[in-house]
């Protein structure tokens, strides 16, 4: 018998404990535990057509209208009757996730690379909008297949071959969530020092650091645990509320700008601009590529693909362009900010107490608005890895791990933070290679065999050979390995124990033979990974292995 993977939960949403569902026996064609049965009858298909931007599909209300509804579905595909979302929901999701002042350091980094303000703005437009357009394209796959990104990826890599990319995505999510949690806790500690006069470091006030971590993870757990409805609503209203607070800080900063210095700054070369575009793309949308379908699986397959792409590109692009451009203006105007190893702290120190408190508060919230998206995706990745647990349980596991790691970073580890950042940054290479292979596969694939996405047995059409689609898996590996030739892995540690004088020590772990070429020094190794993986996949016949169902329009293909 074909056995589905452990998705844990099988319905889209349920009330909170005030209204508990009655227990029931499994249906004849439904395995025990509430998991969906394979080879069940496909639901009726909607009539062919397309929806205008913002127009909900007919049927049940669009997801996101009920804040308190707990999403019960794991990775099993969303029935077409429940795919009622519209692109405006994705617009708010990505807008809120990128609205924070945390975009300012990206703009400062562009000026440090040699770009002037106008070039930095161009890099922001092309890098942010372009990379989130990729997220939007992968959102189209989520609409077509009704499943999370890495679950759909089983059709591309095979049910076993997909474990590698899924593990890389899970580690990356776990890593950046730990960084988000640690940074938010530090913002909380500093906020308390401004308001209550307490010491301003985590080790001086360990209790406050613990409270900051617990507050952050509790809010993350509530939102990501409730699921897509809560995410849609929270992101929408947060855009307006915290967007206004961000504008307060930006207006104040604009009054302190040396505009003569900003406008007189000479521009960089074309090569520097290209490198700047790469820095922005890698620091924004590329990192979210594996979450595109996660946020779009409730979108109707009748929604036009262009609208989904635009919702992600514009939703994330608008706030990022504003924040990155403002960071470039500040970096051009202030030598202190430009030379600082931590521009965020330097900017905060230049603000009066009230403005600095607002600045820290919106920094905390900005991290939260992206962190609960990450935890939501990570929970789905746990299930895709084959761990047979509920989605809410997966969220709790993710939260528990990030809590422990964040507390270790804040209170115990002396020299582990920088190496940890270096490690999770390297994970961008295999994730970029995955993105490229997935996008090439979408050229011909128009639909997914939804029930087969959960079938992990040799009977699955996505079993290929030994559970691996070797041409896709080989392209992913080759793209990643070639990209390593262009990177250098290093971090700054502390030394001087023998002399008693603390000093910075640059630790170099790995230097690729092509790391000091222009591509390597421009930090474009992630782009090499994607290009090489795509080319290898095409040369290996990546547009084969499709049948009539794969290539049929999503509105007419069988479920």
Automatic annotation (TrEMBL):
Residues 18-29 have a biased composition (Pro residues). The chain crosses the membrane at residues 91-113, 120-140, 183-201, 207-228, 240-257, 269-288, 308-331, 351-373, 394-413, 419-440, 473-491, 523-543. One of its GO terms (molecular function) is transmembrane transporter activity. It comes from Actinobaculum suis. Keywords: Membrane, Transmembrane, Transmembrane helix, Transport. This is Purine-cytosine permease. Belongs to the purine-cytosine permease (2.A.39) family. Pfam families: Transp_cyt_pur. PANTHER family: PURINE-CYTOSINE PERMEASE FCY2-RELATED. It is found in: Membrane. Residues 1-66 are annotated as: Disordered. GO terms for cellular component: plasma membrane. It is a multi-pass membrane protein.
